[in-house]
Design brief:
With 669 residues, the protein is α+β, with helices and mostly antiparallel strands. It folds into 4 domains: 5-164, 3-Layer(aba) Sandwich (Glutaredoxin), CATH 3.40.30; 206-319 and 396-582, Glycosyltransferase (Alpha/alpha barrel); 329-390, no CATH class; 586-667, no CATH class. Helix content is 48%, strand content 12%. The strands form 7 sheets. Strands 1-3-2-4-5 form a 5-stranded mixed β-sheet, with helices on both faces. A hairpin with a 5-residue loop joins β4 and β5 (117-121). α4 packs parallel to α6 (135-148), α8 (179-190) packs across α9 and α12 (289-305) crosses α16 (401-418).
């Protein structure tokens, strides 16, 4: 089978289409130049490798020679991986949503040769179906409009483009950045809470880790018992439902029902990284061992199944295998009996498979009763081994800098808090990978696969990697990582900050020119680059004493004050940043004496849920480790013993040289 231009790309999603009869181009000037030369509109198709309906549209239309012939004759066809090019995806998704009132993937958009959109939608079937026009009929209508009513089409495109990028006009909010925003946001979230099953609203139900991070912080701030109940109910229900992989660890993308039972089986790195952090924080806050177990199983899944030998973390695993959604994960009772023999009945009862099929004649494993992980550990291991011999779902093995930052941060924080040296080592290795394999001439890059990195990094890449490096520093007290975080933050301000806007753009000033400069101000499945940038600058301001970081962070946060309180579900990470900004913040300096054990003090600090905390440390008289860090200036190991200094609101407690004293000081906070 012949190949098209996508065969030279690194994106697994684009490579999936390299043998289509469609004459695909990757996004770039070559495609636009041809469209201008031949006076053809561009057909832009955007998706990602773990997208079920993207695969369906490929099978139905892009692999069909007749439909491909229509596409090739009338259009210049461009295929984009939304995960590699979030800028392109964001701009044209805005356009599709304004045209149709909804969006999603696959996304199909028709553009002028200048890149301005004039018509779009999502999935189109090969024939008229479910109220949707057949794709060939749509192509014919678009081609006819382009040639017969060009002026009308171009006027529509100009009007649509003028409406894009309106977030640039977002200016100062009337509301001040105060605690009342947090309380209003919590009220809005609690009004949507599902009392019985946890989560927000009904089906389909998404984990939304950023929302629960905020509610957990709100509980810490207010001690509101309902906030605690909301978080704990949600996390326990998710961990016992079918959305969680009870054999291999890790979470699916979402549940198609309201009970977390039937997942859409794709697994995304960004979901699992954020959920691992959330379950860790819930363990630190509530002491529930189920939360710790789920955190560790999820991180173990990332290290086992989603880690490249070079140290990067892969992006996703498909929902489908052998052409069927969920086939890799579901079981019949007979299959379980064949693996476990005499032990099968216990396994069937434990994972709910004795109650009859719950998914297309088979069983999604779940926990109908209280978990007892130790008693079933041998059974779990045998089933996992047997499942490993099945045909695995497709894996998107590209490495994205921002998503890796989320996973690196989760590993560093969990490694320090749980005493897991293997997690810290994996975080350090990933940090090393990101800074060596995904940085070129000082510029962080977006995507890497098989030794090749390319595409200039976006705001989210800089912010998420910088955030991770701060946590790697706190997990190791190796000054290199804090210095690297600061370098990335300075580059982030240089590339993405706009003084007139008093905020960030998603693309750097050195980025290719698009029809608008994208600026996403919502936390979706992946945090907004702006929200993570704000949080990262606030943490760096606290660690370094550099007021310019805080000035920029608060300037970027201020215009969102009204929106955060009124629409909290779209601002989870922003609300966490606001919580940090409002404080009170806790600064801890840990100073180890040569040969003296700092570990008991480290365990006390990192074994608590202190979300608005920064920690600086220096071990064994390492003078360089304390240079230009106000938290460590003039700090000494008192009497030759490891010493902790706890400060809050610019006032410090007496130095603590034993764990009990430090615990009392932290309790008093």
């Amino acid at each position: 089978m012949s190949e098209n231009r996508l065969s030279k790309e690194t994106s697994p999603y684009l490579l999936q289409h390299a043998h289509n009869p469609v004459d695909w181009y990757p996004w770039g000037e070559e495609a636009f130049a041809r469209a201008r030369a031949e006076n053809k509109p561009i057909l832009l198709s955007v998706g990602y490798s773990a997208c079920h309906w993207c695969h369906v549209m490929e099978r139905e239309s892009f692999e069909n020679p007749d439909i491909a012939g229509i596409m090739n004759q009338g259009f210049v066809n461009v295929k984009v991986d939304r995960e590699e090019r979030p800028d392109v995806d964001h701009i044209y998704m805005q356009a599709v949503q304004s045209m149709t009132g909804h969006g999603g993937w696959p996304m199909t958009v028709f553009l002028t040769p200048e890149g301005t959109p004039f018509y779009g939608g999502t999935y189109f079937p090969p024939q008229d179906r479910h109220g949707l026009p057949g794709f060939p009929k749509l192509l014919a209508a678009i081609a006819d409009a382009w040639h017969a009513r060009r002026g009308e089409v171009e006027q529509s495109a100009r009007e649509l483009t003028a409406s894009l990028g309106q977030t640039e006009r977002l200016r100062r909010a009337a509301t001040l950045l105060g605690e009342e925003i947090l309380f209003a946001a919590f009220q809005g979230i609690s009004s949507q809470f599902d009392e019985e099953w946890g989560g927000l609203g009904g089906a389909p139900k998404f984990p939304q880790p950023m929302i629960w991070e905020f509610v957990l912080r709100f509980w810490k701030r207010s001690r509101n018992p309902y906030a605690q109940r909301m978080v704990h109910t949600t996390l326990v229900r998710m961990a016992r439902g079918g959305i969680y992989d009870h054999l291999g660890g890790g979470f699916a993308r979402y549940s198609v029902d309201a009970h977390w039972m039937v997942p859409h089986f794709e697994k995304m790195l960004y979901d699992n990284a954020q959920l691992a952090s959330l379950y860790l924080h819930a363990w630190l806050a509530f002491g529930d061992p189920e939360c710790r177990r789920v955190c560790e199983e999820t991180l173990d899944y990332i290290l086992r199944d989603m880690t490249d030998p070079a140290g990067g973390f892969y992006s996703a695993e498909d929902a489908d295998s052998e052409g069927h959604e969920g086939k890799f994960y579901v079981w019949t009772a007979e299959e379980i009996r064949a693996v476990l023999g005499a032990d099968a009945e216990r396994a069937l009862a434990y994972w709910g498979a004795d109650r009859g099929p719950n998914f297309e004649g088979k069983n999604i494993l779940y926990l109908p009763a209280e978990p007892d992980p130790e008693s079933v550990a041998p059974l779990r291991a045998r089933l996992l081994e047997a499942r490993g011999r099945r045909v695995r779902p497709g894996r998107d093995d590209k490495v994205l800098a921002g998503w890796n930052g989320l996973a690196c941060r989760a590993l560093a924080e969990a490694g320090r808090a749980l005493g897991r040296a293997d997690y810290v080592a994996a975080a350090v290795r990933n940090a090393e990978f990101l800074l060596t394999q995904m940085r070129q001439d000082g510029r962080l890059l977006r995507t890497w696969k098989s030794g090749r990195a390319h595409l200039k990094g976006y705001l989210e890449d800089y912010a998420m990697v910088a955030a991770a490096l701060i946590d790697v520093y706190e997990a190791t007290f190796d000054r290199r990582w804090l210095d690297e975080a600061r370098t990335l933050a300075d580059d982030m301000l240089r590339l993405f900050w706009d003084d007139a806007l008093e905020g960030f753009y998603d693309t750097g000033h050195d980025h290719e020119k698009l029809i608008v400069r994208p600026r996403n101000l919502f936390d979706n499945a992946v945090p907004s680059g702006t929200s993570v940038a704000i949080e990262t600058l606030l943490r760096l301001a606290e660690l370094t004493g550099e007021p310019a970081y805080e000035t920029r962070a608060t300037a970027a946060l201020r215009p969102l004050a009204d929106l955060m309180g009124r629409h909290p579900s779209g601002f989870g990470r922003f609300l966490c940043a606001l919580d940090f900004h409002l404080g009170p913040r806790v600064e801890v300096a840990l100073v180890g004496a040569p040969g003296d054990g700092l570990q008991p003090l480290v365990d006390e600090v990192f074994g608590r849920f202190l979300p608005n905390r920064v920690v600086a440390g220096v071990v064994g008289g390492d003078r360089r480790g304390a240079e230009r860090l106000p938290l460590l200036e003039s700090r000494e190991a008192i009497g030759g013993r490891a010493t902790a200094y706890v400060c809050r609101n610019y006032a410090c407690d007496l130095p603590a040289t034993d764990r009990e004293t430090l615990a009392r000081q932290l309790d008093a906070l």
